[in-house]
Amino acid sequence: MTGRLHEDAASVSQFADFANDEPCPVLDPQTGTCELYQSRPMTCRVFGPPVRSGDGLGVCELCFRGATEEQITSCEMKPDPDNLESGLLQDLERTSGLHGETIIAFCLALD
């Protein structure tokens, strides 16, 4: 109802596996283009190339079939090397009073 996701371990695990085989809700089925492209979140901006997170190096399995660990690591992308996103998120949380992770579908409902 709030668009915010629960942060306990079970909820995080459930969300990580949720709808892995489903198309993105903002992908136009007719044109195959993103309807949220200019305002897309960081996750969408960096989808495909390997990106490091707390869990290691995340990678799109479809982009790197048959690649070695070394090949994947050599393609690593640093999407926010100056850590600008965290400042923007802090400003947003301070001004809106909201915090936590959200999902694209909820953001679309606000538009």
Describe the structure.
35% of the residues lie in helices and 5% in strands. The chain has 111 residues and is mainly α. The protein has one domain. Strand 1 and strand 2 form a beta hairpin. The longest helix has 13 residues. The two termini are 16 Å apart.
> How many individual helices?
5
The count of β-strands is 2
Beta fraction:
5-15%
Radius of gyration, CA atoms, in whole angstroms: 16 Å
Q: Considering DSSP H and I runs of 4 or more, what fraction of the residues is helical?
A: 25-40%
The separation of the N and C termini measures 16 Å
Morphology call: globular
Number of discrete domains: 1
Q: Could you tell me the mean pLDDT? A: 77
Class inferred from helices and paired strands: mainly alpha
Low-confidence stretches: none
Q: Report the order of strands and helices.
A: HHEEHHH
Task: For the structure shown, list the relevant keywords.
single chain, 111 residues, mainly alpha, two-stranded antiparallel ribbon, 5 helices, 2 strands, globular
Task: Write a brief caption for the model.
The chain is mainly α.
SSE arrangement:
Blueprint: H1 9-17, H2 42-45, E1 51-53, E2 56-58, H3 69-74, H4 84-96, H5 104-110
Antiparallel strand pairs: 1-2
